[in-house]
Amino acid sequence: MITTNEETLASNTALKRRKPHTALKIDKNIKHVKAEYDMIVFCHLRWDFVFQRPQHLISRLSQSYSILLIEEPVAYAEGEKFTARIRQVTDSITVLQPCVDTIEEIADVLKKQVSVNTTPIGWFYSAAFVPLLETVKFCKIVYDCMDELSLFKGAPQQLITREKELISKADLVFTGGKSLYEAKRHFKTNTYCFPSSVDRTHFDVSNESISIPEDIAHLPKPVIGYYGVIDERIDYALLKETARANPGCSFVMIGPLAKVTPEELPEAENLHFLGIRSYNRLPEYLQGFDIAMMPFAMNDSTKYISPTKTLEYMAGGKPIISTPVHDVVRDYNHCVKIVTNAAEFTSAINTFTADLNKSYLRAYNSILDSTSWDATAIHMIDLLKTKDLT
Question: How many domains does the chain have?
Answer without folding.
Answer: 2
